Amino acid sequence: MTETLFSFDKRNYRECQQMFRGARDQEYYRGDFWIEDASNVEVRSERKTVGAISIIKQRSATNLFFRRTRQHIREDATDLSILWFVKHGELTFSNQCGSKVAKPGDFVITRSMSPFFIECRTDSDNVHEVLHVTVPTHILRSYIQHDFSTGLFMPVERPELAIAENILTDVFDDDGGLGEESARLLTETAFGLIGNAVRATEELQPARQSIADRRLEEVLRFIEVHLSDPQLSTAMVAKGCGISPRYLSFLLRLRETSFSELVWEQRLAKAKDWLANSDPRDISISEIAYGVGFKSPAHFSRMFKRVFGANPREFRGECSAREEVAMQVEKAERFPDFPQAGQLLQ
User: Fold this and answer.
1) Domain HTH araC/xylS-type: where (predicted)?
2) What is the tally of structural domains in the chain?
3) In the prediction, which pLDDT does 2 show?
4) pLDDT tier at 58 (50, 70, 90 boundaries)?
5) Residue 220 belongs to a domain with what CATH number?
6) What pLDDT shows up at residue 204?
7) Neighbours of 176 (CB within 10 A)
8) 14: which residues sit within 8 A by CB, 6+ positions away?
C-alpha cells in the first residue's frame, strides 16, 4: 500500500525543510528543499517501498527547489540514485557541467554524490508531476554501468523506458494484492529494461559482426539449449550448427576456451545459481545435478567442491544461513523497535 511521505499547503509549507525526508529522515538525503511562496501552495508526495527502493509519485501546484552541496555530501554520504519520469511541467537539473531541462516524456537519472540544483516547475495549468524512484546506487550499478554521476537525460520514447515506467507505475498503484517478491521482481525487471535502453543508446553504431562471430553465437546458443543433455559433445554441436569439429575448436579458441572447459563452467555456474535460489524441499541436489547435464550426483559433487571449495550440500546450507541473516537484518531496519534489532544492526 502507498503512504504519504509529505503533504504541504499554505499552512505548513515553510516547514518543508524539516519534513520532506519523512517522519524519521528515512527518505532521500540531506539538502536544501524549499517551496515557492505562491497564492496556491499544494504539494503532495506518496511513496511505495519495495525493499530498499522507494517508488514516489509527486504532484505540485507550486514550483519546488532542491539543492545539494559538497557540505551536505560531507555531512551525509548517502549514495542514492533517483530515476525521474517527468509527467507534467519541467525539471531543470544544474551542476558543474551546465544545465539541462527535462520535459514531459523525458527520463532522468540523478545521483546524490555530486553537487546539483534542481528546479521543478509547473506547466501552464499550474501542475508539476513526476514519478521517481530512489534506489541505492550500488543496486542500480548491477543494471546500469553507464557513468551517471553528473546526470543522465533520455527521452522515454525508447520502448524499454516506456515499459519500465508502466511497470513501476503498476507496482506503485497496486493496492496490496501483489506479493512482496513479485513487486521486487517487477522492479528489478524495470531496472533491467532501463539498463538495456541506456546501452542501446550508447551503441548507436554497432560494429558489424564477422562470419566467425555469428557462428560463435550459434555455437554458444546451441550449447545453452542442450546443456542439460549428458551426451552433449563436440560432434553433436558441430552437426547441430552445420560446421566441422575442427572449425568448432577454432571458434572456441576465439573465446580463449575449450569445449570441455566451456561446458563444465556453464553447468557448474547454473548449478550454483540453482542451489543458491532453491528450497531443498522443492528440488534435491541429485535433481539439480541431472538438470544441468551431469551423469551422476557423485561426479557433480566432486567437481563442484573442486571449483567452489565446498560440496553442494554445504554450499546450499551456507546460502540458507546468509538468507536468514539478511531477512533478520531487513526486518530490523524496517522495525527498529524490534527487541533484537540493535544486535542485528551492529
Assistant:
1) 217-318
2) 2
3) 86
4) very high
5) 1.10.10.60
6) 46
7) 7
8) none
